[in-house]
Specification:
about 40% helix; Jelly Rolls; 3 domains; four-stranded antiparallel sheet; binds adenosine-3',5'-cyclic-monophosphate; about 20% strand; cAMP-binding; cAMP_dep_PK_reg_su; cAMP-dependent protein kinase regulatory subunit; single chain; alpha+beta; 13 helices
């Protein structure tokens, strides 16, 4: 898709919202139409988050009782109804309209050294690393140091969640009853220094989706729900929504579970290239793994002084893995055949997050072994 097509698609989406809003506006003719329109758009946003929440609950076999009997909210009524529209649906989750103004972040006193230590860990967690300095400071101030002894449970599946955690030191295990009727817990993963967990119930206002137990004495930094909601929640949900669609087209990832895919979403960065631009140069060092979100690209290899076309990539394909898996220079040059959009992970995130599909990556790499010169 070129830039023109992208803008046309974008316009179509925006027009759709505006047309529906104008239709309702003229039908209802509220006196204070600016307020009405603002409320209308807030409502559209809440309904979109609500459908995201419903999807989440299906994925994780959860249901938060509070939400169970709720229907999608109705659109705003004319202003003579002074209450506007219902605000009962978990205002904290879906009613972002009332946030920020009332937000007074908690400040838990810390030494400069402690602050620095927290900041270092924070920078390794995707959802915090992109924050501005002010926001990072708010998060660091709000973090509370917590100590857990070996075998102590930090999170119990099904409980309400009030905090997320970043591991400062120690090791913890994550378990999950996959279905509500399961009596046995399945071991899922281990958390170590710099890892983050406990974000799901804050993001979706759902019960805890898994249980976490300290494998040895551990120190965690806990971030409260209110600070999380005000600083990172919207951006994280938006990013997960934005890239969910892209990742659903990447066949390589289809064997990963939903949670693993959301972790990848958090780590993705996007880059747009124009037709003819080079993304990867054969022989150079590589530090990124790419997936094609849109457009086509061509891989070329040098052969006896001339450049030979060896592969074409389209939406859902990936490239750039060989340099990261085998620690070799780039094995081909990748050039944009059309204007294109790619998403990428840096090499650390690639190695950490794509572990579950490493075998598939290696197996697939064998298919183009004939193109690889020095292996
Ligand atoms: N496969 C998984 N499904 C759900 N939660 C997971 C999974 N793997 C790790 N977790 C973490 O376990 C945490 C339990 O508490 P939360 O539901 O708040 O957030 C959850 C995630 O951070």
């Amino acid at each position: 898709m070129n830039n023109k097509q992208r803008i046309a698609k974008y316009k179509e989406k925006v027009n759709d919202v505006i047309e529906k809003m104008m239709y309702e506006l003229f039908k209802q003719q509220p006196e204070n139409y600016i307020d009405w329109m603002m409320e209308y758009l807030e409502q559209v946003k809440r309904n979109s988050l609500k459908s995201q929440q419903a999807k989440f609950e299906v994925e994780y076999n959860l249901s938060s009782e509070e939400e169970e009997n709720e229907e999608v909210e109705e659109l705003p009524q004319p202003v003579k109804n002074t209450k506007g529209f219902r605000s009962s649906v978990s205002a904290e989750v879906f009613g972002m309209h009332n946030k920020k103004e009332n937000f007074i972040p908690r400040v838990i006193p810390k030494t400069e050294e402690q602050k620095q230590q927290i900041l270092e860990k924070l920078m390794k967690v995707f959802m915090f690393s992109a924050l501005g300095q002010n926001e990072q400071e708010i998060v660091v101030n709000a973090m509370e140091e917590k100590h857990y002894q070996k075998d102590q449970w930090v999170i119990n599946q099904g409980d309400d969640g009030g905090e997320l955690y970043i591991v400062f030191s120690g090791e913890l295990d994550c378990f999950r009853r996959m279905k509500a009727t399961d009596t046995e817990q399945k071991y899922l993963k281990e958390y170590k220094s710099g890892d983050m967990f406990g974000e799901l119930s804050l993001l979706y206002n759902a019960p805890r989706a898994a249980s976490i137990q300290a494998k040895r004495d551990s120190i965690l930094f806990a971030l409260d729900r209110s600070t999380f909601n005000n600083i990172v929640k919207d951006a994280t949900i938006k990013k997960r929504q934005q890239y969910e669609d892209v990742l659903s087209k990447v066949e390589l990832l289809q064997s990963m579970d939903t949670y693993e895919k959301t972790q990848i979403c958090d780590g993705l960065k996007e880059q747009v290239y124009s037709k003819g631009q080079i993304i990867i140069q054969e022989g150079e060092e590589g530090d990124k793994f790419y997936m094609v979100a849109d457009g086509t690209l061509i891989a070329y290899k040098q052969n006896n002084g001339s450049s030979e076309q060896v592969l074409r990539y389209q939406t859902g394909d990936y490239f750039g893995e060989l340099a990261l898996i085998h620690k070799v220079p780039r094995q081909a040059t990748i050039k944009a055949e059309t204007d294109c959009t790619v998403v990428y992970l840096d090499s650390n995130s690639f190695l950490r997050l794509l572990g579950p599909v490493e075998d598939i990556l290696r197996r697939n790499a064998a298919n183009y072994k004939k193109f690889i010169s020095n292996q």
